[in-house]
Design a protein that fits this description.
Number of strands: 17
Order of helices and strands: EHEEEEHEEEEHEEEEHEEEHE
Bound molecules: fe (ii) ion
Largest sheet: 9 strands, mixed
Helix content: 10-25%
Distance between the termini: 32 Å
Number of helices: 5
């Protein structure tokens, strides 16, 4: 069924050695709000309606443990589950109530490179969802380093209903709603986390957030600039445990008429790494950090 798909990237779960230190960073400096604390796991929200967009679990090594996607209702959860079952996906759980803050009904599974994914519907939402000029609203996207990008894109299309927005020499950008991308896969030799992007209301907010990070001793490792695919503004940082995090905003809103770009459509003039031509290339430190954080379950 063509229209059977997830409708948003809701949250990511990170494993970190020091939950308290990370929770302090993500609340005080990154400007999320702590919403729940249960069994040593801290849950943080943006200003948007999602119950939480980040969960911090205690683990010996930093790792991305899971990405959770929302869909419209329980029936769609069941239909997505039936399709996943038919496709023989790994580690497929039966749909069930989710026993963690935010709740809802959903199921988990793993993709071909061992990334743990979850589909949920009916999870709690916040009615106080007014934007703030210097706080993230929601997760914008997660980028995974992938040993087989085309296979990953195909898999997320078949199982979760994603569509390819753009393919460059470096990455595939895929979407599940009007945002140009919610997931991207970067060509790599190992399956690791590339970065997590948090959406700001606009460029002004990206700049304010970037200034707050600099004040706190976290230099801008790439940016501020405006990307090619998606046209979002960006500022990249290395957060605690070498997790690469991005403030982003103004991502292209697209629909089914969007012409899928191919690598030959996305080339920069010499010396350029962003649309404005103001950004220096990413720092060496950023490149290194973008390869470091393991995917839990990946070989
Ligand atoms: Fe990004």
């Amino acid at each position: 069924m063509e229209s059977l798909r997830v409708s948003a990237l809701r949250s990511v779960d990170l494993g970190v050695p020091d939950v308290a230190a990370n929770a302090e960073f993500y609340s005080r400096i990154w400007a999320l709000d702590r919403i729940a604390d249960e069994n040593g796991t801290v849950y943080l929200r943006g200003t948007g309606p999602a119950h939480h967009i980040l969960a911090l679990h205690e683990r010996r090594e930093p790792a991305i443990l899971m990405a959770t996607f929302q869909t419209s209702d329980r029936e769609t959860v069941d239909a997505l589950h039936a399709r996943a079952k038919g496709l023989g996906v790994d580690g497929l759980e039966d749909p069930a109530p989710i026993l963690e803050p935010g709740g809802g009904y959903g199921f988990g599974f793993a993709d071909r490179e061992g990334r743990v994914l979850r589909v949920v519907a009916g999870d709690e939402t916040h009615s106080d969802a007014a934007e703030a000029s210097d706080q993230p609203t929601k997760l914008s996207h997660v980028v995974f380093n992938s040993v087989d990008v085309e296979e990953a894109t195909r898999y997320y299309s078949d199982v979760l209903g994603f569509k390819l927005s753009d393919r460059t020499r470096i990455m595939d950008f895929i979407r599940c709603n009007r945002d140009h991308h919610s997931i991207a896969f970067a060509h790599a030799e190992r399956s690791t986390l590339n970065h997590i992007a948090f959406e700001m209301p606009d460029l002004e907010s990206v700049m304010r957030g970037a200034g707050r990070m600099r004040d706190a001793g976290y230099p801008i490792e790439w940016g501020v600039g405006r990307h090619g695919p998606g046209a979002n503004v960006f500022a990249y940082f290395i957060g605690p445990d070498d997790v690469v995090i991005e403030y982003t905003g103004e991502v292209d809103q697209v629909d089914d008429d969007y012409p899928t770009g191919m690598p030959e459509d996305w080339t920069w003039p010499p010396g350029r790494v962003d649309r404005w031509g103001v950004s220096e290339p990413p720092s060496k430190r950023l490149h290194e950090a973008q390869q470091k954080v393991m995917v839990s379950g990946a070989a």
